[in-house]
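@channel sequence for tomorrow's demo:
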Amino acid sequence: MSERFTVKSARLREIEPAVLYRLLALREEVFHGEQSITELDLDGRDLEEGTLLLWQEESANPGVPLSHIRLMTGGEQVRIGRLAVREDFRRHRLGGTLMRAALDAAGQHAPGRDVHIAAQAHLVKWYLGMGYVSVGEEFMEAGIPHVPMVYPAAR
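structure tokens (generated this afternoon):
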């Protein structure tokens, strides 16, 4: 990845309020504005001790997130979710870079554990290309078809 973009990560309590506000605004823009999801985004999971938020900023514009993802290591399953990339930066491969950063963080914070996702069905091939495997049937979540997938710990 070029030095143009920087990956950041922190627990919720460690994030500067203005950056946190912009992260949540990005999630709202993508999930509610673009995807018309009616379920609440703020589900309390961001507050959990085992949750790490990751995002990317443009080096020339620090404090302004362009992408976001959430890694949760505190439950029965290690989960990655809430991937959102600002629309005008989707051609810069930020989603893939951020997903790989979340997998690396999962390996550090929860070594030896599979990583689970609920992939939007139209992105299954993209996730397969990263090494995820499908582990179940398509289901509806937030009005969007999803497929359960796992990134195996033995990678």
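heads up for whoever presents: The chain has a mean pLDDT of 94.
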